[in-house]
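Exercise 7. Given the encoded structure of a 562-residue chain, write a plausible sequence.
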């Protein structure tokens, strides 16, 4: 079992005081903080852009239904996350859940997928932050020096703004969780205020005619590179708009909801985690779904989807079309704030996953240590931040956005299946939160997640396969041999100490008569001897009660008079 790559982490070992005090994370989060974390990562610049882009290119006004479909899929998966996080409240999230339910090699695959999701997400959003920050400076009339024009607001290559925002947030995380939480609260509240202004301002120009036709006629996609796995399997041509377009837009929109699962990575830092983590996660997801749908209704109601330019900011175009161009500055502020909080929460989650994998020995154990000064996993933070900086500056990450979705959906799939596996194998475990209507709900989550995965591009799956191949090679070369669970299972357990033999029962005459300084009790044939009877002798049983009085000071015997 020690060399078996399918070895499973026992629940009690995953959640117990296994790693010692220096490995325990400091408790800082309450339910309201978890809701802010969720809104901080789910409500980014995408709330101002994704509805317009998908309406213009994929679904038309029916993009509203695409948001509903993606929201339902994520909600189904969130219920499974909620149950497992109430049983296994540890930092690794889907990685740790899979370690317990399916075994080490599958845990590594899921963990490697989550690392891809978070690493790419932080890199993509940092690039988007630079683009929006550059646009905001231009909209506010700030003149950018010519020496900086080629190194800020760049879609690929070196970008100074993307580098600076990453370094700033990495420094914030490496020096303490409380400071980063206070900064997150401020930015999320400011962001929600901006969103409310945009919704209120946009609904003033709402026109029902812009929703017609609600489901535009289907047509073949113009870009052959956009073929999905489902198209390849069925041998068909990729289509946009129509009812097919509603579902085709859902996987990309799911990218907007990515983040509710990240709340579970903070379980070890949350007070009463088995109850508060599921509660905070579900509340934040429901709030995000409502906000996205309201913003989508505002977007497609302000302007016809035919007049939207996917290459430009949809809300800026919409407000300019209705004569409210200054509102684009409000959108810029909201986008910059939103993207900042997304990067911050994603880096927090990436750090915790790396910390958990290092603590289990699948990555170098130094990444599983907590700084005694800052009480955060500083080495894991520096690794996560350094990898993000390197990827954001060297890879054309904006073209790999769908890989973030695929990594997330892979985790969704295993977590939903893990609920069924753990209910079968460990029905005795206490579950502060239980998935309603199980096993139907987890099965629906599995089917819906698989459907979204098949609607991703073939090219995305090819890149994902390369990443996973590299990850499996790393596990075989390092993690499989250094696993702490392997060491634990391979170490011979000391033989249990032999149980002491029961002491023989004392003879009747010793157990019945107390050992006192009184004269020896008298039997019918004289006093009993002081010691045990000679070998082979049988102790004389006391006779019936005598008719006369007992001698003075003698034991009355079992039948004597008191």
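Solution.
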């Amino acid at each position: 079992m020690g060399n078996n790559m399918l070895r499973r982490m026992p629940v009690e070992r995953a959640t117990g005081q296994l790693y010692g005090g220096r490995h325990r994370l400091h408790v800082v989060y309450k339910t309201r903080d978890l809701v802010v974390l969720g809104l901080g990562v789910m409500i980014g610049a995408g709330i101002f852009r994704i509805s317009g882009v998908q309406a213009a290119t994929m679904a038309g006004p029916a993009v509203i239904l695409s948001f509903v479909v993606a929201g339902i899929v994520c909600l189904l998966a969130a219920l499974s996350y909620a149950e497992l996080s109430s049983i296994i409240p540890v930092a690794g999230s889907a990685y740790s859940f899979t370690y317990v339910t399916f075994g080490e090699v599958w845990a590594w695959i899921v963990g490697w997928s989550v690392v891809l999701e978070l690493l790419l997400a932080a890199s993509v959003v940092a690039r988007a932050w630079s683009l929006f920050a550059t646009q905001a400076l231009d909209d506010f009339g700030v003149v950018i020096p010519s020496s900086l024009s080629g190194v800020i607001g760049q879609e690929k290559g070196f970008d100074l703004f993307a580098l600076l925002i990453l370094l700033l947030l990495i420094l914030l995380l490496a020096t303490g969780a409380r400071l980063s939480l206070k900064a997150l609260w401020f930015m999320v509240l400011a962001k929600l205020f901006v969103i409310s202004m945009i919704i209120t301002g946009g609904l003033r120009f709402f026109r029902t005619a812009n929703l017609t036709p609600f489901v535009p006629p289907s047509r073949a996609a113009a870009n052959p590179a956009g073929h999905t796995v489902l198209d390849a399997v069925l041998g068909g041509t990729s289509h946009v708009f129509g009812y097919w377009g509603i579902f085709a837009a859902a996987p990309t929109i799911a990218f907007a909801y990515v983040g509710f699962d990240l709340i579970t990575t903070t379980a070890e830092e949350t007070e009463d985690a088995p109850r508060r983590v599921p509660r905070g996660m579900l509340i934040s997801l429901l709030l995000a779904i409502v906000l996205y749908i309201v913003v989508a209704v505002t977007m497609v109601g302000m302007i016809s989807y035919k007049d939207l330019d996917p290459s430009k900011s949809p809300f800026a175009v919409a407000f300019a079309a209705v004569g409210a161009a200054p509102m684009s500055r409000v959108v810029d502020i909201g986008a910059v704030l939103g993207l900042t909080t997304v990067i911050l929460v994603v880096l927090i989650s990436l750090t915790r996953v790396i910390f958990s994998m290092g603590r289990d020995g699948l990555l170098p154990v130094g990444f599983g240590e907590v700084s005694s000064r800052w009480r955060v996993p500083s080495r894991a933070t520096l690794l996560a931040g350094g990898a993000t900086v390197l990827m954001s500056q060297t890879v054309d990450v904006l073209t790999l956005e769908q890989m973030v979705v695929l990594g997330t959906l892979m985790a969704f799939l295993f977590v939903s299946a893990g609920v069924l596996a753990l209910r079968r194998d460990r029905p005795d475990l206490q579950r502060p939160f239980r998935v309603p209507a199980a096993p139907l709900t987890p099965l629906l989550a599995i089917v819906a997640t698989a459907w979204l995965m098949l609607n991703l591009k073939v090219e995305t799956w090819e890149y994902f396969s390369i990443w996973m191949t590299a990850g499996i090679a790393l596990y075989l070369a390092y993690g499989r041999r250094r696993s702490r669970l392997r060491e634990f299972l391979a170490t011979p357990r000391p033989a249990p100490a032999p149980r002491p033999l029961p002491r023989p029962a004392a003879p009747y005459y010793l157990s019945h008569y107390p050992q006192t300084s009184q004269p020896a009790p008298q039997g019918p044939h004289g006093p009993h001897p002081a010691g045990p009877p000679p070998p082979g002798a049988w102790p004389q049983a006391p006779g019936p009660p005598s008719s006369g009085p007992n001698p003075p000071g003698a034991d009355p015997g079992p039948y004597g008079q008191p």
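Remark. The radius of gyration is 34 Å. Students should compare their own answers with the one above.
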